[in-house]
Design a protein that fits this description.
Blueprint (H helix, E strand, L loop, with lengths): L10 E5 L8 H14 L4 E5 L5 H5 L11 H7 L8 E2 L6 E4 L8 H4 L9 H7 L7 E5 L6 H9 L2 E7 L4 H18 L5 E8 L6 H14 L12 H5 L7 H4 L4 H20 L5
Parallel strand pairs: 1-5, 1-6, 2-4, 2-5, 6-7
Antiparallel strand pairs: 3-4
Helix pairs in contact: 1-11, 5-6
Bound molecules: adenosine-5'-diphosphate (ADP) and magnesium ion.
The site of magnesium ion has 4 residues, from helix 1.
Protein name: AAA domain-containing protein
Family: Belongs to the ParA family.
Function: May play a role in septum formation.
């Protein structure tokens, strides 16, 4: 597929922001589905005990289902807890069940607690173009595991007051992980979410974020769109629920930008 070329090598992208409700899960799910629909092989790892990404992809995640907890705490192989996403070829997911709620505490006393996810991913024999890690709204050990396992961080920023304030704590954490645990870590992408064109505030926040993060910020902004918020109640992403909606179109556009940038970064032409 020309519009979203497959990357020359696997890209692992953590979708992170320790603020809740900024669009992490929505962004991870919709980018993953959009890329999969355009021929990329994609895995979504649900690393939030709330399991919203699992719900959005309609992946079973009730108690007892093998999940990412089993990898992190019990050293289960990643491929053993991976499920195909029904109805979307090329897309797989690892659910989060209620078990994961205890992982933040249990990880503290586990050997190599910061690198559990990294090791699990490295041992997978599946060939993916993209792995998206949907992080919880905190900077604890689950998020540290995500930051150690990836090379790219994607930060969704909601266009509202104090948008950048919380991001500073995340940036500091990324620096710490980079200097101690993962020298390849980088903020590759910032996405403006729930953008409301009618407000002057959205415009001000956008200017702020663009001057702070420069060309890491995607050109496309994700509008606030009711179809986006409806989709999860149908266990769907908006890009499958209503592909023509403004929300879906902007997520397709975002996925395309990310794919094209990835092709550029390594010097490859589309
Ligand atoms: P997070 O994972 O950061 O907590 P979510 O992706 O779950 O955030 O989004 C929080 C809420 O906002 C959800 O109810 C989601 O459906 C809704 N939402 C996310 N993006 C949009 C959007 N572009 N337009 C309208 N509602 C949105
Ligand atoms: Mg979430």
């Amino acid at each position: 597929e020309v519009t979203m070329p497959r990357p020359p090598r696997r890209r692992i992208i953590s979708v992170s922001n320790q603020k809740g409700g900024v669009g992490k899960t929505t962004t991870a799910v919709n980018l993953a589905v959009a890329l999969a629909l355009h021929g990329n092989r994609v895995l979504v790892i649900d690393l939030d005990p709330q399991g919203n990404a699992s719900t959005g992809l309609n992946v079973p995640h009730h108690a007892g289902v093998p999940d990412i907890y089993d990898c992190l705490i019990d050293s289960a192989p990643l491929d053993a807890v991976t499920q195909p996403v029904e109805g979307i070829p090329n897309l797989w997911a690892i659910p989060a069940t209620i078990d994961l709620a205890g992982a933040e505490i249990e990880l503290v006393s586990v050997v190599a607690r910061e690198t559990r996810l990294h090791r699990a991913i490295e041992a997978s024999t599946m060939q993916y173009d993209y792995i998206f890690i949907d992080c919880p709204p905190s900077l604890g050990l689950l998020t540290v595991n995500a930051l150690v396992a990836c090379e790219e961080v994607l930060i969704p920023i909601q266009c509202e007051y104090y948008a950048l304030e919380g991001v500073q704590a995340l940036t500091a954490n990324i620096e710490l992980v980079r200097s101690h645990l993962n020298p390849n870590l980088d903020i590759s992408t910032v996405v403006l979410t729930m953008y409301d064109r009618r407000t002057r505030l959205a415009d001000l926040v956008e200017q702020d974020v663009r001057s702070h993060f420069g060309d890491k910020v995607l050109d496309v902004v994700i509008p606030r769109n009711v179809r986006v918020s409806e989709a999860p109640s149908y266990s769907q992403s908006v890009v499958t629920y209503d592909p023509g909606s403004r929300g879906a179109v902007s997520y397709f556009e975002a996925a395309k930008e990310i794919a094209l940038r990835g092709a550029e970064q390594t010097g490859e032409q589309e």
